[in-house]
Specification:
Rossmann fold; 14 strands; about 20% strand; 8 helices; homodimer; about 260 residues; 6-stranded parallel β-sheet; globular; alpha/beta; about 35% helix; 4-stranded parallel β-sheet
Amino acid sequence: WARAVRGLLLDVSGVLYDSGGDGGVPIAGSVEAVRRIKASGLKLQFCTNETQATREKFVKKLQGLGFDISVAEVTAPAPAACRLLKERGLRPHLLVHNDLVPEFAEIDKANPNCVVIGDAAENFTYANLNEAFRVLIGMEKPVLISLGKGRYYKETDGLKLDVGAYMKALEYACDVEAEVVGKPAKMFFESALAEMGVPAEQAIMIGDDIVSDVGGAQQCGMRALQVRTGKYRPCDENHPQVKPDAYVNNLAEAVDIILQQL
Amino acid sequence: WARAVRGLLLDVSGVLYDSGGDGGVPIAGSVEAVRRIKASGLKLQFCTNETQATREKFVKKLQGLGFDISVAEVTAPAPAACRLLKERGLRPHLLVHNDLVPEFAEIDKANPNCVVIGDAAENFTYANLNEAFRVLIGMEKPVLISLGKGRYYKETDGLKLDVGAYMKALEYACDVEAEVVGKPAKMFFESALAEMGVPAEQAIMIGDDIVSDVGGAQQCGMRALQVRTGKYRPCDENHPQVKPDAYVNNLAEAVDIILQQL
């Protein structure tokens, strides 16, 4: 599986670091692994569903943890959502993390005709969920745009429900299907590949989420590895639908194997 | 549809009264309609998915609004859940309204091996949802019991997400299917019919929820009416799956028609 590779897509949380209220901690070997990928000449793009911060803030945090990463190397859902909103003349009611709001600064939000939901974390209050619900149910044809459909993720203080769970709550209440921007949407992986300028057959996705990372990338024709870090659980290895091209203990091990094949 | 009736099942919120933080207000004509049903000799049972209070407290509130109602006449999800927990030796982690907790006083809750979710309202905090999720995902085979699967309901200050939405969030996050106690579960309607001692063919359900009330009762072989009060919305009349035996403007009109046929 490690042959004929020209580019890597890396998930961030659970692969590079474990996030948490304290800013998070790097996963052993990952800082060095990113450096080795860049030194090898392989193309690299970070492909994240992170929606708790602007890309600028997100990148600063990762740089603070020692990672060699820049804003241009990050593919994230909020900018993709903004493109979609502009194309379709949609004015969002936002149910997102406070720190993500600046990504929507250019977007008209008066008299909303859709709801955009991200990983709002502490903003997932009973009041805010009811408010987003009322905006949706008040539309003739509710439009719900979700910045990902992750089930849960791991922070240093434990597992947390991800945006997908709250998306499902609103979908059920309003009897609609959300449009998902972010992994595992095909368009999202394709725009990350386009950023690298590498075709799917020559790219490998490395992630900790069996469905969003591995399943999504394989649907696009990429190879995909699951790391045994982050939200990985042993039962993922018996997943009924998705089978990674390989399991690796962590990013460092994946990079070892890939660089040996170059 | 009004012939050969011996018993009525009445939904409460949206049929008898509109609930709200202030205790709610009776729907015009409903207090008198309940009195007329009782005077007619028809059997009567109140069949509610109310899980924001013990039956005792719930009945007291309705009596305060002028309704002739007693605890024995109320079929509600929490006692049904307690029977199920005892039968199966389950120890619940509760995600319910504070005022419902006394219904579970007799139940062993140490070292939980299932999660029971009700309409927790203000208790649907980000922290409480994460906690219930962690209990579930920590089980080898997660068991989620839901006191209803309603999408939303109307209070005097607006529409609110109901337990079904939060149930869907946990179902998705844990990849499980909840066991629903309460409407529209068949067993729940059957126990209400048993309380009245009336067979399904001779009973009519009257409710404002097209799926939980009308669809659920029809699945049990009852006739079912939808009132145009409470959470009723005009688009319910084009529901793709469920067609009530009749629409009525309110409970009073339903009772007029039924009593004329006696």
